[in-house]
Design goal:
Order of helices and strands: HH
Number of strands: 0
Helix content: 40-55%
Distance between the termini: 53 Å
Radius of gyration: 17 Å
Largest sheet: none
C-alpha cells in the first residue's frame, strides 16, 4: 500500500466548490454506532453534578 502523504479534511466538501456536497462525516456516519458526543456530554454532566 502506497501512502501519498496527502491530507484530507473530514469537514471538506466531497465535491470541490460545492458546500452542499456533504463531507466525509456524512459518508462515515452510522446510525448503529453511538455518537462520541453523547458519551462526552454524559461524562461532563456527571462530573459537574458531583462538584455541585
Amino acid at each position: 500500500m502506497k501512502n501519498t502523504g496527502r491530507h484530507v479534511s473530514m469537514d471538506a466538501p466531497l465535491a470541490a466548490g460545492d458546500d452542499n456536497a456533504g463531507s466525509m462525516y456524512d459518508v462515515m456516519e452510522s446510525d448503529d454506532s453511538p455518537s462520541p458526543e453523547n458519551g462526552l456530554l454524559h461524562e461532563s454532566f456527571t462530573q459537574k453534578s458531583k462538584v455541585h
